[in-house]
Design a protein that fits this description.
Rossmann fold; BirA Bifunctional Protein, domain 2; about 20% strand; EC 6.1.1.21; ligase; 17 helices; about 500 residues; eight-stranded mixed sheet; five-stranded mixed sheet; ATP binding; alpha+beta
């Protein structure tokens, strides 16, 4: 008789997280939620109200700023519905809001102030700091045609950063206007639809000013630039005169002196911008709007140290039509290479007067900004904001199970704690007491409740304060001494269990 064939080992899946995605544990989730609560408080103080839109939209509704709809998987995650319509995971929170407002236009108050928080998805090559799924927290005003709305957004951005723990002087809200940029483009001969490709190259070059400096941007505006790795980026091919005009524009910096004539300063400052846009009416209109925003912010007490005009702000999305802004952190940090750098932008936005109007016959003005939740969270860790580095919430009180035949009695104990509003759990594993104690420690339990047969016969439980016990253990030299002392452990009647557990929680967490 032949031997039975050896059973093949069942194939097991390798646990792998797709590139560009991250898992988060309970501590980070709790800290993030505390930060989100502060952002929400700030937005609601300005009269904004919550709204939520789905993760999935019709691809065509996401807007012309995305790649060609004939290739809907470029930049977005897309699939076809059973009716062959293309659907996509949302790329940001603004385009879905435009669809929502257009769909409920008559029922919403105008101007309509709303905020939204949620994940967005980018089908892009992942890399350091570039994720395929990340969270944004947006606030928008729809139906307000004047730049007073943009000024409010800038002021709220400043207030929000301070509310979450970024000190004044460690951030600045920088403001530009796409109309000014359009005016500069017209002045150098890049106006019109046929120059859209070169305009995009120019905008991307300006956006790299902080990282590459004027010399690097000059190459990108001209013949192109080879980076440290040897990769070559094709330039915009502009003339020397056009390059110098753009560099002169992006080099303007506002630095009003304390106690000086603010009105005269802004007149001189924006006068320099006017020379760069030349005769472009669009550019001059953009400068006037910026001037108004600065005056409104200063009137409300938001000076140059908090909100300032900055020509280097570009913003990459195509739907912006007017003022654009970025909230930038200015304090230095050390990167992975040991270099001291500035943290950079954690929020941005602008005016997008054409986005809602795609769904309606009339134009609908709108403006808003988006907080990069993960990036802001990282910044708060750097500055050790108590919002993200504060004391963690206590773990659950753990009821140990020493006699599995008495599980019902243990269930009654944990039920008493839960009915009293005390977070608690019954140990549901199969290990002995020593392993259960280790489990409670890993769960961050402030204390455990123990009931063996002797305690049950007496109508008692033992409560072991794990936090106090750990402190006492440091002062006890031998195991025998430990067993004799049994630090931070006491026996109490079952009907006093809830009160005594509350005493443990109050001792370590207050309240």
């Amino acid at each position: 008789m032949s031997k039975p064939a050896k059973a093949e080992k069942a194939a097991t899946l390798k646990p792998r997280l797709p590139r560009g995605l991250v898992d988060r544990g309970p501590a980070e989730i709790a800290a993030t939620n505390r930060m989100l609560d502060k952002i929400r408080e700030s937005f609601e103080l300005y009269g904004f109200e919550a709204v939520e839109t789905p993760f999935i939209e019709y691809t065509e509704a996401l807007g012309k700023f995305l790649p060609d709809l004939d290739r809907p998987n470029e930049g977005v995650f897309s699939f076809q519905d059973d009716d062959e319509s293309w659907l996509s995971l949302r790329y940001d929170l603004t385009a879905p809001l435009a669809r929502y407002v257009a769909e409920h236009f008559d029922a919403l108050p105008k101007p309509y102030r709303s905020y939204r928080a949620g994940y967005v998805f980018r089908n892009e090559k992942p890399g350091p700091g570039r994720f395929r799924q990340f969270m944004q927290f947006d606030a928008d005003i729809v139906g307000a045609p004047t730049v007073a709305a943009d000024a409010e957004i800038c002021m709220m951005a400043a207030d929000t950063l301070e509310k979450v723990g970024i000190g004044r002087g460690d951030y600045v809200v920088k403001v530009n206007n796409r109309k000014v940029l359009d005016g500069v483009m017209e002045a150098i001969g890049l106006g019109g639809a046929d120059q859209a490709g070169r305009r995009l190259i120019v905008l991307r070059a300006i956006d790299k000013l902080d990282r590459l400096g004027a010399d690097g941007v000059r190459l990108l505006l001209g013949p192109g630039r080879k980076d440290e790795s040897g990769d070559f980026t094709k330039g915009a091919g502009l003339s020397d005169e056009a390059i110098e005009r753009i560099l002169r524009y992006v080099s303007f910096q506002a630095s009003p002196t304390e106690g000086g004539d603010r009105l005269a300063f802004w007149e001189d400052f924006f006068g320099g911008w006017s020379e760069v846009v030349g005769a472009s009416e669009t550019g001059r209109q953009g400068i006037a709007e910026l001037h108004t925003i600065m005056k409104l912010c200063e009137a409300a007490g938001y000076g140059h140290d908090r909100v300032r005009a900055d020509p280097s702000v570009v913003r990459g999305l195509e739907y912006y039509t007017g003022p654009v802004f970025e909230a930038e952190l200015t304090f230095p940090v050390v990167n992975e290479d040991g270099q001291t750098v500035r943290f950079g932008s954690v929020a941005g936005g602008g005016r997008y007067d054409g986005l809602v109007g795609r769904f309606r016959s009339e134009p609908v003005p709108a403006t808003g900004f988006s907080v990069g939740v993960s990036r802001l969270f990282s910044a708060l860790q750097v500055v050790r904001s108590p919002i993200v580095s504060g004391q963690a919430a206590p773990g659950p009180v753990v009821i140990l199970v020493l006699d599995r035949e008495e599980t019902a009695a243990y269930q009654a104990l944990v039920s008493s704690l839960r009915q009293a509003g005390i977070r608690s759990e019954l140990y549901l594993g199969a290990s002995g007491m020593k392993a259960q104690m280790k489990y409670a420690d890993r769960r961050g339990a402030p204390c455990v409740v123990i009931q063996g047969s002797d305690e049950r016969a007496r109508g008692e439980v033992q409560i072991k304060d794990l936090i106090e016990g750990a402190k006492a253990a440091e002062a006890i030299a031998s195991n025998a001494e430990w067993k004799a002392a049994r630090p931070a452990q006491l026996s109490v009647p079952v009907d006093e269990m809830v009160a005594r557990v509350r005493e443990v929680l109050a001792r370590h967490y207050g309240g």
